[in-house]
Each structure stands twice: as structure tokens, then as C-alpha cells.
From TrEMBL:
This protein's name: (2Fe-2S)-binding protein
Keywords on record: 2Fe-2S, Iron, Iron-sulfur, Metal-binding, Oxidoreductase
Highest taxon listed in the record's lineage: Bacteria
Example GO molecular function: oxidoreductase activity
InterPro entries: 2Fe-2S-bd, 2Fe-2S-bd_dom_sf, 2Fe-2S_ferredoxin-like_sf, 2Fe-2S_ferredoxin-type, 2Fe2S_fd_BS, Beta-grasp_dom_sf, Diverse_Oxidoreductases
Boundaries of every 2Fe-2S ferredoxin-type domain copy: 1-77
SUPFAM superfamilies per the UniProt record, alphabetical: 2Fe-2S ferredoxin-like, CO dehydrogenase ISP C-domain like
PROSITE patterns per UniProt: 2FE2S_FER_1 (PS00197), 2FE2S_FER_2 (PS51085)
Keyword match Oxidoreductase: yes
Gene3D superfamilies (UniProt xref): 3.10.20.30, [2Fe-2S]-binding domain (1.10.150.120)
Organism: Paraburkholderia ginsengiterrae
Length: 155
């Protein structure tokens, strides 16, 4: 079946079953590889993207459920030194990534958080990102990066 979805501001038409996970369409059909396959069960957050205004685990979200909502991946936040999103700049400045596998999911979950709560305290950040798993142990750097980005976005 032909499905039309808007990803990172561009309309795409893909051939997929409506129950195909959005992650597979992003990675296999659109070659957007920022969102990662981690667990396949919506438990780790490596596949997190924005669907509309919501941070969404794309490994279990059916592409047919996207409808008219905009999908934003980490590639849609910004790229190139001049066009990085405040979160991406802050993650770089705070060295908030080691292996980088969780980074795109963390960035997208953090974007959803800052869109809802522009000035979160560390406890709120930790609570809101508790479902995003990072095995490298850079959690404190991630919290600092989100706080740094929040300041820049409010300025």
C-alpha cells in the first residue's frame, strides 16, 4: 500500500503495510539512520522521533498511524556547524555522548521535553528522560546539556 508521510518538512510516498514500524520506513525506505533499532519493544528509546509534538518510539509505532502529523528525526533538528539545534550544540559542548547510540533518541526526547517545559530542573529532566537508556554513563552530562540548551532557547 502507498503511504504518504511528511518527514523533516518533506513529503514522502512509500510502499509499506500500514502496520510496518515507522522506524523501518525511516531507515530502510528514506535512509534516515539517526533513529536506531535498540530493543524493538519501546523500552530503550534509541528509536525516539517526534510525531507531531510527541516523542514517539518508532520501533513500535505503525507508519499508518502517522496520518497528517509531521515526523521529525534527529536529521531534521539541524545539521552542519551553522545549523545545529541548541540541543545538538549543548550535547557537543557538554560531551554528552560517548558511543552515540542513544544520542538521537535522547535529543528527540529532550526536544519534546523542552517544547513542553522550557525551564526544567535537573529532577524533571531525569524523570522525563528515565525511559531513555544510556549504557555509557553520561547521564549527568546529558542533564547539563539539556539545561544549557534550555537557557539558549529561552534567550
Amino acid at each position: 500500500m502507498s503511504i504518504s508521510i511528511k518527514v523533516n518538512g518533506k513529503q514522502h510516498h512509500v510502499t509499506a503495510a500500514a502496520d510496518t514500524p515507522l522506524l523501518y520506513v525511516l531507515r530502510n525506505d528514506l535512509q534516515l539512520n539517526g533513529a536506531k533499532f535498540g530493543c524493538g519493544e519501546a523500552q530503550c528509546g534509541a528509536c525516539t522521533v517526534m510525531v507531531g509534538n510527541d516523542a514517539t518510539r518508532s520501533c513500535v509505532f505503525p507508519v499508518g498511524a502517522v496520518g497528517a502529523k509531521q515526523v521529525t528525526t534527529v536529521e531534521g533538528l539541524g545539521h552542519g556547524e551553522q545549523r545545529l539545534h541548541a540541543l545538538q550544540k549543548a550535547f557537543l559542548a557538554e560531551q554528552a555522548a560517548q558511543c552515540g547510540y542513544c544520542s538521537s533518541g535522547m535529543l528527540m526526547a529532550a526536544k519534546a521535553l523542552l517544547d513542553r517545559i522550557p525551564d526544567p530542573d535537573p529532577a524533571t529532566i531525569r524523570r522525563e528522560l528515565a525511559g531513555q537508556k544510556c549504557r555509557c554513563g553520561v547521564h549527568n552530562r546529558i542533564v547539563r546539556a539539556i539545561q544549557r540548551a534550555a537557557v539558549e532557547l529561552r534567550a
